[in-house]
Amino acid sequence: MKNIFLITKREYLTQVKKKSFVILTLLAPVLMIAFAAFITFLFKANESTSTFNVIDKSGLFVGNLKSDQSIKYVFVPRENEKALTSTLKDMDGIEGLLIIPELKDNNFDELEKNSKLLINKKIGFETKMSVVADLSRIVKQEKIKKLGISEDQIISLDKNFDLNTQNVVDNNKADSDLDFGIKSGLSMVLMYAVFMFIIIYGVRVMRSVLEEKNNRVVEIIISSVKPFELMMGKILGVTLVALTQFSIWITMSVLGAIFLNTGFSAMQKQIPGGEQSEEMIEKFDIQQTASEVSHILLDMNYPLIIFVFIIFFLLGYIFYSSMYAAIGSAVDNETETQQFTLFAIIPLMIGMYGSFTIMNNPEGPLGFWLSIIPFTSPVAMIARIPFGVPGWQIALSIFLLVISTLLMIYIAAKVYRVGILMYGNKASAKEIWKWIRS
Questions:
Q1: pLDDT-based confidence at residue 220 (cuts at 50, 70, 90)
Q2: Which of 30, 291, 324, 360 has the most CB within a 10 Å radius?
Q3: pTM (whole model) above 0.70
């Protein structure tokens, strides 16, 4: 046990003392936010305003077809149709000509059939759909007016049904759309984080084992410690490195949520009353939304979420790192690892992609079994926990994962004991099975 502690300490201190570890740990959240902002900028940078000349022979769309930031409509006299059609090919700054025929006998189907958009360059699918949506909206309003329905009634017809839901199990707490959206987003972030870190740090253990094996350093180390102690020291050392990073990031996230909650609440209290207050509140919609988000996050049982996250990440990581350590000891180079790493990656991928269905049905049978089976539970249970999971299911899942992790450590130790000192032989699945049975 003393040797395991010494190896764990060495692996841990070697990693955390690196400047790259400190920089990435502190800057990773900032880099993620910056990356998201950069992707948003790329989408914005590719946006442009399309200008279309419009000839409206029906008279329905003049004054109703409104321009916006992406599409600009310019109405022109119907007498210019021939001239505009013939010169459209050479026109700059105009993407197309929208020709709307006359409306005869309130035959909107005929109007739609004979309407056409002439373009002189390729336009995006979204731009075309926006034009179609604008025309459809006006035609719909006109059809309803023909039925004798007023504008207010039209607005009332288009209004969505706002259904208030309350969970009687969870203290009659209201479940809003924003609440569900935040839980879904948190579920995906936590699930993806566990998936990526198990793979990243598991591969790090495998490469460390493979590097020591190829350098023959392991022969010297094995003379002082047992193979099992060396394997467990490496796994636990890298595990503590990962937990250190997660602890820092979780602390930063909680402090950020508290800052949003208190900071924006104080900002809203300072807004003066009266008509100016309403105008200023409208301008602070983003801040209000951020405050609501922080309220929802803080209202969650985040101590339980953090506990489950750490436990399942820790057990899941040890489970799969044992597998990766065994793979690293059984091969001589990274090329040979590819045929074995699929055994570790495929169950995690099944757990991750299968967990996407949890967003629509957190208590469904697929979500239940994915969060109970040890191969997928480190990912699936993390995806379910923001929505609330019965205590007995969490306990059962942890119990099965603990038993499976101990079994995987036992199997990996048997493979590691033989494979770490073998050179030149390409280990097959059949030969590894013999090592396990021996």
A1: low
A2: 324
A3: no
